[in-house]
Design brief:
By secondary structure, this protein is mostly beta strands. It contains no helices and 49 strands. It folds into two domains: 283 residues, Neuraminidase; 240 residues, 6 Propeller (Neuraminidase), CATH 2.120.10.30. The protein is 0% helix and 45% strand. A hairpin with a 4-residue loop joins strand 16 and strand 17. It is elongated.
Length: 548
């Protein structure tokens, strides 16, 4: 149940990135640099829907990763069950004949794979298809959430179009059918759990007072279990009285839950890239699979309030910081647990940081000296980066418009276009001489922008999908070229050297439907090491120059 698309994706259909050329399974190579793992890769790119099959296998879906995984809960490992791109699954559930149905949120499609391996498309043209469940009588249902708000019945044979039952419910999310044959599910935007008659469309509230209820499931005894993503709670609900009993408290950003045949309960957590077992008697929690980073997107180099060298990480579901000296990874804030909204890009200027989330159309600031997150500001058009400027204003790169926008930090409604002819502005940087540099992913350039005139001076060209980059004091550029899955070094005289090749960067989004873009971040540390995010594997790596 990916939430990063809950706001309007203004201009999103124009969002395109450079082609990715190299194969992700090639062995990384370096040129006079050593490659080291700083943060181990994660198994997932955000984890959402969970379900148990009738033979007691746990399956988990990832929207961004476009993969359905099988989880070995005893050995605490994961493997690919249905790979990208077909495996995009916000929610999934096995049917009565061993078929598996799942919702491809970004594509607006519903897929069903029969027991003999045939894959059918049961619905398309329904953006935001989110949750799914089979009724006891074998009928199949799904909902649109965030990019729509409706409940549908689907024909498992694919012969008849979806039947809309009800709309405007308030975000009917991860639902399940009860012993009475009625549908029970949470209303994301209303903080309620409702009961729905799928034949008549009649809906009634059975429990309320939740912060953001994300999903429900019945156990074998008829108990209804619910998760509250904002409160970080696992709750047992009495369907007759509406009484709620908090069984476990965990970190916010819970997405879904599932119970196996023995009523062992498991939850997914987006920010932690985790599947966690919850003891329903004691409330004890046990991680089954967990990743340090969920997405590993843009990074920026700076210092914390204590003057320690830090790499700030936009991780989509959270905003994190890596202490370079100690290797400690800390969390500044996570979605639903703090005032933060899917940060994927980070820009630093001294003590000031700007966060951008293209999918949410948002920009906000963060003060490293006080540790305070600023207000969230929406209605930007695919903001792929943001950068605090001297004097307090913020510069925003709007990818779909090809524009750099200067925002008055005292009045965020005052926005002035600085440049409007850029070919996919992606990452921003304050250069060594105090000017602004921008990478153009589609144009294949790194350019210097005059903020007064908008004049663009190209510093490097003929690049293959440049994204994150950094600049040394002498003007040397270090650039992630996702089109060749490499990191390049370009000297002030124009000499170009590939210092890392066949790297796991350049995460590719779906060919159809809404776009997905995960920027690769690059920073130069105080010691001269090159840190970069590996968006294909949700990890962080370091290139260290060889000793002279």
């Amino acid at each position: 149940m990916l939430r990063s698309f809950k706001y309007a994706l203004m201009g999103a259909t124009a969002f395109a990135v450079a082609a990715h050329a190299a194969e992700p399974d090639q062995v990384p190579t370096t040129n006079n640099y050593s490659l080291e793992t700083v943060i181990e890769p994660s198994a997932f790119h955000g984890i959402h829907g969970l379900t148990f099959t009738r033979d007691n296998r746990l399956l988990a879906g990832s929207v961004l990763g476009r993969t359905i995984y099988e989880i070995d809960i005893e050995n605490k490992t994961s493997s690919t069950y249905i790979g990208a791109p077909l495996g995009m699954a916000d929610d999934l559930e096995e049917g009565p004949n061993g078929e598996l149905g799942w919702t491809a949120f970004l594509e607006g499609k519903y897929y069903l794979r029969t027991k003999d391996g045939e894959t059918r498309t049961l619905a398309e043209g329904l953006p935001g298809l989110n949750s799914t469940a089979w009724a006891p009588d074998g009928r199949l249902f799904t909902t649109q959430v965030f990019l729509g708000d409706a409940l549908y019945e689907l024909d498992p044979s694919g012969n008849t179009p979806p039947r809309k039952i009800i709309e405007g419910m308030g975000g009917l999310n991860g639902f399940d059918f009860g012993p009475d044959g009625k549908l029970y599910g949470p209303l994301w935007f209303k903080g309620e759990i409702v009961r729905v008659d799928v034949d008549s469309g009649a809906m009634e509230t059975i429990a309320d007072g939740f912060n953001v209820p994300a999903a429900v499931n019945f156990d074998s005894k008829g108990n209804l279990w619910a998760v509250d993503t904002a409160a970080g709670q696992v709750v047992r609900v009495n369907v007759e009285t509406g009484e709620k009993t908090i069984v476990a408290n965990v970190d916010p950003s819970i997405d879904n839950l599932a119970l196996n045949a023995d009523d062992r309960l498991f939850i997914s957590n987006m920010a932690d890239n985790a599947i966690i077992q919850v003891n329903t008697e004691t409330g004890e929690t046990t991680p089954i699979v967990k990743g340090a980073l969920a997405v590993a997107a843009d990074i920026a180099h700076g210092h914390n309030a204590d003057g320690e060298e830090v790499i700030f990480i936009g991780d989509l579901f959270s905003f994190r910081a890596l202490n370079v000296a100690t290797g400690e990874l800390s969390e500044i804030g996570r979605v639903f647990g703090a005032n933060i909204d899917y940060p994927i890009s980070v820009g630093v200027n001294g003590e000031q940081i700007a966060l951008a989330g293209w999918s949410a159309g948002m920009v906000q600031t963060y003060d490293t000296s006080t540790g305070e997150l600023g207000d969230i500001h929406h209605n930007f058009t695919t903001p792929t980066d943001a950068l605090p400027l001297p004097g307090g204003d913020v510069l925003v790169a709007e990818f779909a418009r090809g524009a750099l926008v200067r925002v008055d930090s005292t009045d965020w409604s005052k926005r002035t276009d600085i440049a409007t002819d850029l070919a996919g502005p992606t990452s921003l940087l304050i250069s060594a001489n105090g000017k602004v540099l921008v990478s153009e992913n589609i144009g294949g350039t790194i350019s210097e922008i005059d903020l007064e005139t908008g004049v663009r001076t190209v510093l490097a060209s003929d690049l293959q999908g440049p994204e994150g980059f950094d600049q040394a004091d002498d003007g040397t550029l270090y650039i992630a070229e996702v089109g060749t899955k490499s990191i390049s070094r370009i000297s002030p005289d124009g000499t170009k050297v590939t210092i890392g090749a066949n790297l796991p960067i350049g995460f590719a989004g779906p060919a159809d439907g809404l776009p997905v873009y995960v920027p690769t971040g690059v920073v130069l540390s105080d010691s001269g090491d090159i840190y970069f995010t590996a968006d294909e594997v949700a990890g962080l790596y370091r290139l260290t120059p060889a000793s002279e």
